[in-house]
Amino acid sequence: MSEEHYLELCDSPVQFENASSVNNVFFDEANKQVFAVRSGGATGVVVKGPDDKNSIAFRMEDKGEVKCIKFSYENKILAVQRSPKSVDFINFMPDLPHSEFSQECKTKNATVLGFCWTSWNEIVFITDQGVEFYQVLPDKRSLKLLKSHSINVNWYVYCPETSVILLSTTVQGNVLQPFAFKCGTMSKMSKFEIELPVVTKPAKIILSERDIAVATIYGQLYVMYLKHHSRTGNNPGAEVVLYHLQREGACKRSHILKLNTTGKFALNVVDNLVIVHHQSSQTSFMFDIKMKDTDSNLNIHQPVLPARSIHPYKIALTGTVSVSITVLALYSSTWSVFQPDIIISASEGYLWYLQVKLKPVVSLLQDKSKLMEFLLRRRDCKMVILSVCSQMLSRGDKGSLPVVAIVFDKLNQVYKEYLEAEQSYTMAVECGPSRGSTAHKRPVRTQAVIDQSDMYTHVLSLFTERKDVSHKFIIAVLMEYIRSLNQFQITVQHYLYELVIKTLVQHNLLYMLHQFLQYHVLSDSKPLACLLLSLESTYPPAHQLSLDMLKRLSTANDEIVEVLLSKQQVLGALRFIRSVGGHDNISARKFLDAARQTKDQMLFYTIFRFFEQRNQRLRGSPNFTPGEHCEEHVAYFKQAFGEQAFIKPVTL
Predict the structure, then answer these.
(1) Domain Mic1: where (predicted)?
(2) Nearest in space to 522 (alpha carbons), one of 550, 549, 497
(3) CA–CA distance from 385 to each of 273, 292, 308, 371, 375 (Å)?
(4) Cα(325)–Cα(315) distance, rounded to whole angstroms?
(5) Euclidean distance between CA atoms 599 and 570, whole angstroms
(6) CB 463 within 8 Å of CB 503
(7) pLDDT mean across residues, the chain
(8) Are 215 and 243 spatial neighbours (Cβ–Cβ below 8 Å)?
(9) Tens of pLDDT along 180-228?
(10) Is 50 helix (H, G, I), strand (E, B) or coil?
(11) pTM above 0.90?
(12) HSE-CB of 45 using CA atoms within 13 angstroms
C-alpha cells in the first residue's frame, strides 16, 4: 500500500524569477507578495501575489542595496529600506506623482530593523531602541508621527492578520513585548517571558526569531515557540509550546505539542491545524489543539496522525526540444516558511500554499469518534463526512450501532448550534437595534453543518436501497438518526419519516409500522398522513391511522374532509365537520358533488336537506345563492323528488 499523504502544495503556485537570476527575493506576509529585485544601473522590481492577475513590474533609481521592500494594502504606497536609518516611499496612486520621499527614524543613534504596514497609509518602524508609528500623507509626500515607545529590541515578529508586533527584549531575548495596532492607535499589551530550556552552565541559550511564530488558531492568537531539547533518556526531544496571547490580561502557556525527535523544524498553520515540518526525516507532524489527550490544565498533545511527507510535487521543465517532468526536492534547506500556510522556494522560484487533504485522514484515524471531531473542525469537510457515514453504514454490523449513534450525535450537535444561532439572529433582527448594541451578524453556515437534507440525499436514501445489508439494521440506523435529532430538539423532516415507512412496507414489517404510529415514534404531520392514505391498498388499517393522525393535528380539518369525501364517506365527512364546528363555512357544492357520485339518492336527499336547513338558519331562506353554484344540484333534486320536496320559505 502506497503512503498516504495528507499534506500537499497547491496546484497553482505563484511563480517568480528564481534566486539565480535576481539579486534578492523578498516576501511580504501582509499582502502575500513576492518581490524579485534586480540591481544594476536602475533597480528592476517584479512583484507577484496569489491574487494578482498580472505581475507588477517597475524600475527605481539605484540608491543602494534593498534591505526590505513592501507595498501598503491595495498596492497604494511602496516602502523601501536601503539604509539603517530611514525608509523611502513611492506613491503608486494614479493621481499622485511617483517621485520618492523619505523618513528617518526619530530616535537618535537608532537602527531600523524593519517596518510593517498596518493599513494602506499607516506604518510602524521597528528600531533597536523601540517602535515608531506613523501615518503616511502621500499627497504631502511626508509622514506624521502618531506614537512611539522606547524599548531595547533584539528582533521582532509581525502578525498581519491581527496587526500585532512582538518585540524581543532582554539579553537572552526571551521577554516578549507585544503591541497591537488599529485605526491609528497603538496599544501596549502585557509582556511575557518564554521559558527557555534548562542547560548546564556556562552554556546560555539565546531565543532566536527562527523559533518564534505568531498565528491565529480557532480564532485565538497564539505565540508558537519551538523549544529544542537534546534527546536523552528523560527527554524525548523538541516540542512546540503555545502561549495564548490575549488583548487584555496576561499571556499564558496553554498547549505543548510533543515532537518526540530533534533537528531543524519549521511551522505552518493550515485550517486551524499546527503543522511542524522536520527537515532531516522529510516529514511533517500534524496537531489539533482541540483534541485533548489529558485532563490536565496544560494540554499536552501528541500528533493527531503518523508523520507523513508532503505529497510529491511535479514541475514541468521546458527545454529547447521538449517538456520534461521532474519531481521537486521537498523539505529543501532553501525553503522559507511563512505564516500561516506559505512555503517559498527561492532557488526554484515558487510560492505555494500548504493544504490539508482530508480523504487520506479517514484511513489513518481509525477511531470514528475522534475522526468525526477532527473532520467537523475542517474547512472543506462536508462531502468527506458524508462519505465516512456511508462507509460506516456499509458494514451492516449491528454491533456498530453505538458508534453510529455517537457519530450522529456529533453531527447533530453542530447542526443544533447553527439552528440556535440562526434563530437568535432572526429574533434580534425582528426586535430591531437596541441602544449600545452592535450590529447583528448572520451566523456563517460552515461545511460542518450537516442537515437532514444532506443526510437524506447523500447517505440514508442510498443506504435503504442496499441489498447486502439487513433490513433490521437499516431500520435501526434510520431510527437512531431520528432519535439523535429528537435528543437535540431538532424538528424531524417528514421525508425521513416517509423513508422509514417505505422501508417498513417494502419489507412487509407492517406490525412494526403500526406500533411506531400507535406509540408516536413517528411524529404526526400532514405529508405523513397523506402517505399513509396511499398505503391503504397495501395495508387497509393505514386509512384509519391516517385519519387519527389528521385529527390529532387539529389543523388538518380540510384534509380530513377531503379524505372522507374521496372515500365516498359523505355523511362521515359531514359529521366530522359538525363535530369541530366548521359546518357553517363548508362548500355545499363540494358535498353535493360527492353525494351525487355515490349514486345513492337517499344520501343525496339527506345532504341536500342539511344545506337547505343551513341556508334557512343562516339567511332566513332555504334557497341557494348564485355564488354557491348549486343550480345543477337543485335541478337534479327537483327531477328526483319533485317540487313539493323543497323546503318552503317562511313568509311573515
Answers:
(1) 378-626
(2) 497
(3) 18, 21, 22, 9, 7
(4) 6
(5) 12
(6) no
(7) 85
(8) no
(9) 999 889 999 999 999 888 776 656 788 888 999 999 999 999 999 999 8
(10) coil
(11) no
(12) 22
